[in-house]
Amino acid sequence: MSAHAHRDDIGSKLGMWLFIFTELLLFGGLFITYAVYRYMHPEAFHLASQELDVPIGTINTIILLISSATIAMSITAIQQHKKKLTLVLIAATILLAAVFLVNKYFEWGAKIEHGIFPGSAYLDQLGYGDVLFFGLYFFMTGLHAFHIVIGMVLLGFIFYYVKTDRLKPDNFQLLENGGLYWHLVDLIWIFLFPLFYLIA
Amino acid sequence: MADEKHHIIPHKTLLMVLGVLIVLTLLSVAITQIELARWSGAAALLLAGIKSTLVLLIFMHLKYDMRIFKVMVGLIIALVVVVMVVTMLDYFFR
Q1: Helix-then-strand count for chain B, H and E
Q2: A9-198 is classed in which CATH architecture?
Q3: Are B18 and A69 inside 8 Å of each other by CB?
Q4: Distance from CA of A121 to the nearest CA of B (A)
Q5: How high is the ipTM of this complex?
Q6: What is the pTM for the complete model shown?
Q7: What is the pLDDT of residues A169-184, one digit of tens each?
Q8: N or C: which end of chain A has fewer CB within 10 A?
Q9: A200 touches chain B (CB under 8 A)
Q10: Are B73 and B62 in contact (CB under 8 A)?
Q11: Per-position DSSP letters for A17-45, written without gaps between them
């Protein structure tokens, strides 16, 4: 290719941040919904929150924090021309994401087994507060888990691009953008965890 | 612009931040498990705020980025906070 390929790393990063802002507003709206319903049903939220499994929540929080660190480390690694280490760190991030989802599966499974899921007869008996708490719990952690799945696909592509040298030490903005997305997922969980699991 | 040197965050820094984040997580779990404090919820949220600031500044590289990124992120967070405060004021004084 003789023509110089057009590249604008700062513009690319700016675009990624604009997307992240829309995500922050989306989850921000959900957090406001949570705040209002919690204010209207304080006791139900207090009791319902005790149903959640704090150890699993804590473990998943730490898993996400570690995965956030590994993807940040991969950006350092690619700049230091350590391709192999970059690949290992991206792979570790995807693996940790999978572990997070497996934990989530068991957590949701246990809730559903106890008859706690949106629209269940058991939940309807408990009243509005519980319906709202678990409705928000399933929707917000579900939307978050969906973001994890998308992040895994995105990082999967990035892994392939690094492996095939489409992303290189002097051209890795996509890896940085993928990292930004992954940190966003971590950021949202940092607030989801105390609001649903800890404030009982 | 193409010559602008890209700041590289050493692995050691990132691992130290990770350590702090994990400690803060365990701390927020610990304070909310003690039943005595009625402010434990607020404390857990404050710790979440500190954690997210660390993620934004170091992991998301904002500390080393151009100023425009910091300003924009600050404005968006301010927007969410303002909408939240106004909504809650509405409910408190209904």
Answers
A1: 3, 0
A2: Up-down Bundle (1.20)
A3: yes
A4: 30
A5: 0.92
A6: 0.93
A7: 999 999 999 999 999 9
A8: N
A9: yes
A10: yes
A11: HHHHHHHHHHHHHHHHHHHHHHHH-HHHH
